[in-house]
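Quick one, tokens below. Sequence please?
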């Protein structure tokens, strides 16, 4: 993997932005420009390896945060889901990066998170940073929305009527913590699945309408108990081998006194 590391350095030396981003600020608005630098001396192209944030203008992404890569590099293309993991418990953000090492140009997007990164979305250009060994820069825009919804889940066989259920691994919505089970039931329409989520003190049921084997839109318009008046609409997608499924969308409660984070 040393050759991969040398390629990363070469790309950073040849194709780069001209300046480092400023250091982390004390506070940031709900949207704005995002400037981050990271160093990748610990990254050799393997799945589960990481780069480390060295500067950031957003308080929720402090220096020392790690960017973890789910899938291995297939040179010259890095195309993988990523997790942004700041120091300490509770906050992570979930995204995807596509980077062509032959040109040194790429794009990273984030579509949700937990903790201080709840409702976090961003789109940034990825370019080499020659002012730092193994250095790369992110430059783009970010926003936070308290009503943004994100979760990822894994699925497997179950006694449910259509033979499977999913277990939430990460969620931006505190009433659906990790370990929450999503149950499914068939309907008379093979493209529509009834979906139920039960929590302590409540439940919600909606319909997922499938347009392909890995794409759907799920809509929830009611609930009971703690999920009374719950509203949720999400787009369903999956990673390349369908081992992880993603929900991205928006949520709300019809009555303000039910609107909980």
């Amino acid at each position: 993997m040393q050759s991969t590391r040398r390629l990363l350095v070469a790309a950073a030396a040849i194709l780069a932005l001209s300046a480092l981003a400023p250091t982390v600020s004390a506070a940031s608005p709900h949207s704005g420009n995002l400037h981050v630098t990271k160093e990748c001396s610990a990254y050799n192209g393997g799945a589960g390896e990481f780069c480390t944030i060295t500067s950031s203008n957003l308080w929720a992404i402090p220096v020392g945060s790690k960017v973890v890569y789910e899938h291995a590099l297939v040179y010259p293309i890095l195309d993988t889901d990523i997790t942004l993991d700041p120091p300490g418990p509770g906050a992570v953000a979930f995204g995807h990066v596509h980077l062509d090492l032959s040109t040194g140009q790429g794009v990273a997007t984030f579509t949700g998170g937990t903790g201080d990164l709840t409702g976090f979305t961003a789109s940034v250009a990825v370019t080499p940073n020659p002012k730092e060994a193994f250095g790369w820069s992110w430059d783009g825009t970010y926003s936070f929305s308290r009503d943004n919804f994100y979760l990822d889940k894994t699925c497997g066989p179950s006694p449910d009527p259509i033979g499977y259920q999913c277990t939430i691994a990460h969620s931006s919505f505190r009433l659906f913590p990790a370990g929450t089970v999503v149950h499914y039931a068939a309907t008379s329409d093979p493209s529509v699945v009834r979906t139920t989520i039960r929590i302590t003190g409540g439940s919600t049921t909606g319909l997922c309408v499938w347009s392909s084997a890995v794409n759907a839109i799920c809509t929830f318009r009611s609930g009971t108990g703690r999920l009374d008046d719950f509203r949720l609409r999400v787009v369903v997608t999956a990673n390349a081998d369908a081992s992880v499924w993603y929900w991205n969308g928006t949520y709300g409660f019809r009555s303000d006194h039910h609107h909980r984070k």
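Residues 2-144 form one domain. The radius of gyration is 20 Å.
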